[in-house]
Amino acid sequence: MAKVNCLTTKACLLGVALICGVSSTTYAEVPVVSSTPLGKQQGSQRGSSQNSTAGLLFQLESLQQEVQTLRGLVEEQNYTIERMRREQKDRYLDLDRRISQLSGGAATQATGLPTTNPDLNQNPSSNASSQSDGQPSVEKQAYKDAFNLVRQKQYDKAKVAFTALLKQFPQGSYAANAHYWLGEIYFTSQALDQAKTEFEQVINQFPSSRKVPDAIYKLGRVLYQQGKTSQAKSMLSRVTKDYPNSSAARLSSALLQTIR
């Protein structure tokens, strides 16, 4: 009986073992067998890795190239800004020099306007009447007031004053000078098209004015600023040819040397 029990126990244990074995076999993960040889699998993995690395290197090189391009653009813009700053400063200095010379005694050489402002006496008849009654003409006073604003560097107000003067006296004794100073103000503020118009007014509408040489020189500078080098050189050469003894001719000659 004991032997039977023992055999039974062993049978039970064996059954349990068989059941466990079957279960283990049944539920075991079925291995995936690739039809691709091992060597080819490794080669494919290496190729994929190399392609990925090459792609990253290409992206890195592209980014580096973009950075270099952007740096070049920044340097170019910085240079352009610095050049414009210097040119703007030169224009202000030039205008201040002309105004100072006009106020201090050297205006005949620099601007064509004598130190005693004889351009305020261009009309003999009106000048005679104003001397007789001791009162300046309306046009003369308007010009003096406008020009004083230029000397005080109140350029916006001066622009309004000169414009009003020209509206009231478009062919007056001081119209050429008013156009010229409007051109100077526009040129200083880089309103090149407006400056060009004003200087052309002096040249074309008032050919006998003493401001013509300066207006031609300034027109040459405007054209040069606009990138019209050939036209600029033509204007500057015209000054040196037609007005060789003027200060405008000397300035034109100096500028021609720099742009040739």
UniProtKB/TrEMBL annotation:
Give the Low complexity compositional bias ranges: 121-137
Which InterPro entries does the record match to this protein? Answer: BamD-like (IPR039565), CpoB (IPR034706), CpoB_C (IPR014162), TPR-like_helical_dom_sf (IPR011990), TPR_rpt (IPR019734), YbgF_tri (IPR032519)
Q: Which residues form the YbgF trimerisation domain?
A: 50-108
Major subcellular location class: periplasm
Question: Which Gene3D superfamilies does the entry link to?
Answer: 1.20.5.110, Tetratricopeptide repeat domain (1.25.40.10)
Record-level GO cellular component terms = outer membrane-bounded periplasmic space
Quick one: signal sequence residues? 1-28
- PROSITE patterns attached here? TPR
Q: Which Pfam families does this UniProt record tie to the protein?
A: TolA_bind_tri, YfiO
Where, subcellularly, is it found?
Periplasm
What's the superkingdom here? Bacteria
Q: Which residues lie within the region annotated Disordered?
A: 104-138
The TPR repeats are found at 176-209, 213-246
In this chain the Outer membrane lipoprotein BamD-like domain maps to: 139-249
> Is this entry keyworded Cell division?
yes
Biological processes, Gene Ontology terms: FtsZ-dependent cytokinesis; protein trimerization
Keywords from the UniProt entry: Cell cycle, Cell division, Periplasm, Signal, TPR repeat
Polar residues bias spans: 104-120
As for family, the record states: Belongs to the CpoB family.
Function, as annotated, reads: Mediates coordination of peptidoglycan synthesis and outer membrane constriction during cell division.
Name listed for the protein in its UniProt record: Cell division coordinator CpoB
